[in-house]
Amino acid sequence: MTTPDPFELDVRPQLQRGEEPFGTIMTAADGLQPGQALRLIAPFRPAPLFGVMANRGFAVSDRRRSDGAWEVLFAPLEDARPDAGLAPGSAPGAALWPDPAQVLDLAGLMPPEPMVRILEALTALPEGAVLFALLDREPMFLFPELATRGHEWAGNPAPDGASY
Questions:
Q1: Is the pTM here over 0.70, yes or no?
Q2: Which residue ranges does the record assign to the DUF2249 domain (predicted)?
């Protein structure tokens, strides 16, 4: 069996237009074939993305290119298997986390309010504590913020798709 060529995604044009590329990157990662890597081209080293992709089961290698851009290869790890019922990108072993120390019902709030409240609540929790948040949608912009601050996440959409 041959390994498919990496899928290349250049986010520089999107960033030049002032657009946030995180959703595009996650969509690309979700669309990869089994064993396929994602080659990301960016104008800067996207270090906050490294933790997010590691939680999704990817090894990370990066290099600065001669044109000044950064090339990052996210290669899938062979033994990365998401826990049953959890969304792609959820932290490995999340099913073994302790019960939540705090629960937030953020359904019905408009973005960015849920993200703001989650980040505020996390500052008050001790290390290793779990925060549970009920949301109306997948919080795509929250994931890189959590990675930047050293937090892991796990998610699962409700069976009816009405909440996350």
A1: no
A2: 8-75, 103-158
